[in-house]
Amino acid sequence: MLDTYREVVTPEGVALHLPAAGPVPRALAWVIDFLIRMAMVFVSGIVFGLLGRGGFGFQAVMVFLVYWFYPVLFEAMWNGRTPGKRALGLRVIANNGAPVGWLAAFSRNLLRVVDMLPFGYATGLVAGLLDPWGRRLGDMVAGTLVVHDARPHEPSPAPVKHALAPSVALRPYEQAALVAFGERGPHLTEARQAELADLAEPLTGARGTAAVTRLYGIANWLLGRR
Amino acid sequence: MKQELFVQRHQPEWNAFEQWLDERGASAREARKSRRGWHGLADADMPARYRRLCQQLALARRRGYSPVVTERLQDLMQRGHGLLYRTPAPRWRRAVEFLVAGFPRLVRAERGCMLASFVLFWLPLLVVFAAIVWTPDLSSSLFEPMQLREFEHMYDPADPARKLGRDSGTDLAMFGHYVWNNVSIGFRTFASGLIAGVGAIVVLITNGIMIGGIAGHLQAVGHGDPFWRFVAGHSAPELTAIVIAGGAGLRLGLSLVAPGQKRRIDSLLEGGRRGALLCVGVLAMLVFAAFVEAFWSSIAWMPAWIKYTVGGVLWTLTAAWLLLGGRDRAHEDASA
């Protein structure tokens, strides 16, 4: 419930990290989609209303399609995203990280009937909170997952030019943490940089600005900048 | 190897891969059209490049390279993975094949649930019908007097100008109404099966009682003729579709209650997949039924014997389709 990453090992034996989305962004996406659907029904109602009684039949078919197939069509044809999900940066994917197929999109949306019980998606909310990856019942049965789209962030070069070899051999995760500090530290305030660098006092043997400079130096060395 | 050197050495490869994804990965059809004008990474090399990328990502993780590098690689890999392992687009040929052969096969494969659903629907229907024909007063305990008057009004044999079973409205309007109403009932019957099957059972029994009650009442008060002429045509696909939707719902409920030797989630996945496939067939049947109901059943001047013959033919065809469809290829998995 606290760690919402789902790790999927692909056929190539590499782990994909899929950040599962929680109930709040999903509910907001649903509200956006709901407004769009209302607008579609409203507009088509005006258009078909001009056709007289026969238009009522088209309108009923339109309501049917918007109610049952709006999310299915968007999820299957638009890479797992309805307009609402796109606005919130969400995406539906299959459990194994592959894009969601027609059948899975169909069944996860059919089963909204159950997730909506007894009112306002209460069942879906409870299921989502109990499930480690925030899936509602429809997601579980269809084998799908709603994830956050990855947001790429650009590296910024460390503000220090020199390279400094670390005094002790570092483990891989320690190296990764230092390199990450080197690449993302410049985005932080000076005080926060110093605060973080203080944590590495055993390594740098310094505190404050001096420690920050040394850590950037070590990061440069680890990155291979000489 | 230091990170910068690693990046420097492989960057062009990643960029070529990314460019390929951006420009050719989106649509296979577009890619086929613009094959000649493309000078980047060859399509045939893409899987090999993808596997190299996976290896590079694993290396980068193991060597503790920064998140900027691993995230970039994971992003590329995820896009490649999505492309290589996407489900095939549905094809018309396969859709027709599914309706003709795969669907009946799937229905027969779930014959236990289908039989249970059949009994749950038809037993109350017939019992209530027989009871009301026997003692007509019973119908007033099932329906409000207002409702009863409405039913009688709809199938009034003394009013020859009216269409059968209709108050007003064009055939087209009624078609839309039947699609929305009946398919929604079918889908809900299936989905509510997830509540341990209880939802599907309730829907089946209530529908059985209601339909049996209306038919029994109209028969008892002497409005049977227009009623039977109206329902003869579309009853076969419509009632059968409701039974199948109920069976699919029972199957789903059973996956939850009695997963057998599978994990419960795997059992539910299987039940959901089959249920969704069955719902595709139910959708087709109910749209067909709505078509018949809107454009054929309501024709009032048609002699009764033609209507009953057509009804009989449709019942026979439905039964033959479900019992015999796809017999010749019995072992093929019905996945659409």
UniProtKB/TrEMBL annotation, chain A:
InterPro entries: RDD. The keyword Membrane applies. It is a multi-pass membrane protein. Residues 21-142 form the RDD domain. Its main location: membrane. It is found in: Membrane. Keywords: Membrane, Transmembrane, Transmembrane helix. It comes from the Bacteria. The keyword Secreted does not apply. The chain crosses the membrane at residues 27-50, 56-78. This is RDD family protein. It comes from Lysobacter panacisoli.
Automatic annotation (TrEMBL), chain B:
Pfam families: SpoIIM. It comes from the Bacteria. The keyword Magnesium does not apply. The chain crosses the membrane at residues 114-134, 194-215, 235-254, 275-299, 305-324. The keyword Secreted does not apply. Keywords: Membrane, Transmembrane, Transmembrane helix. This is Stage II sporulation protein M.
